[in-house]
Amino acid sequence: MSRVTTIDCEYVFPQFAAAYLIEDATEAAFIDNNTLHAVPRLLAALKARGLTPAQVRYIIVTHVHLDHASGTAELLRHCPQATILAHPRAAPHLIDPAKLVASARQVYGAAIFDKLYGAILPIDAKRVRPLDDGARVALGNRELRFLHTRGHANHHFCIQDGDTIFTGDAFGLRYPALQKHGLFVLPSTSPTDFDAALAVASIERIAASGATHAYPTHFGEVTDLARVAQELTHHLDFSGALLERALVSSSTDAELDAFCLTEIQAHMERYTRERKLPWATAERELLKFDLQLNAQGIAFVARKRRHAAA
Question: Which of 16, 33, 122, 204 has the most CB atoms less than 10 A away?
């Protein structure tokens, strides 16, 4: 197995979002690049491994959500030999991020957007290589395999390196601060491409990949892939059923976010009681952000399907 360095990007708070550095022979690759503000951390990790930016062959993006990809252009500026590897649907947003930026600014507001992400610059198309499902790419003496994994985002792929797989958001969220009472993982159903069936299919594909170590961007190494897959599928079965209830609920479009959030919170309360998880207030606050995002994602799809049926 090639060496894996987990880099805490300290996005929002510590151990929330990671970037990964892998290396073999004299070549290296970054997987997920967080934001402009994280780039010095990535370069420091490279230096600590005795490597130079000129040895970075690839900068890999699992998908173009901003906490995974908005630092890509800045990182590329420091790595003169690197090529960006991305899903074919993600590549156009890296080459021209204008729509992505405009959408995020509308969601966050200009002040928060600038604080979180800074400038997101376009990337020369000649330095971006889209990869089809099953594509294989050499890194040093190793071979990386790319698996398209929809459900969280239509432009998402995972990267398998032998017995290791880097899963972006396709294999859930695993925050270290929430592991002290036993394994706790949660799928990400955030806007805009949530599809429960596709998400479960992606989880099954990852679990069946032959990998024994998974590295979700949020956050760090996972080894019990079968158990993680079981837990995630349990939550996704609930999320898929919630979407169907949202479609026929009496809630207006404007009320769907609140309806979904109430249901998700109730589900999580039941789950934590059954698992006897004695979470403190700080642990519940950590989870609160993702429950809100997950509710928004389910509500978004429900509104879209309502309008399509009208």
Answer: 33
The DSSP H or E segment spanning 225 is: helix 225-248
Considering the domain architecture, whether residues 201 and 267 belong to the same structural domain is answered as no
Instruction: Tell me the average confidence (pLDDT) per consecutive run of 10 residues in the chain, 310 residues long.
Output: 86 94 94 95 97 98 95 96 98 94 81 87 96 97 96 97 97 94 93 95 98 97 96 98 96 95 96 87 84 94 90
CA angle 68, 146, 26 (to 5 degrees): 80
Q: Residue 2 has what pLDDT? A: 54
Note down the domain range covering 270: 230-309
Q: Is residue 182 part of a domain?
A: no
- Asked if residue 134 and residue 257 are part of one domain, the reply reads no
Contact 2, 22 (CB under 8 A): yes
Residues 283 and 214 in one domain: no
Q: How far apart are CA 114 and CA 229, in angstroms?
A: 36
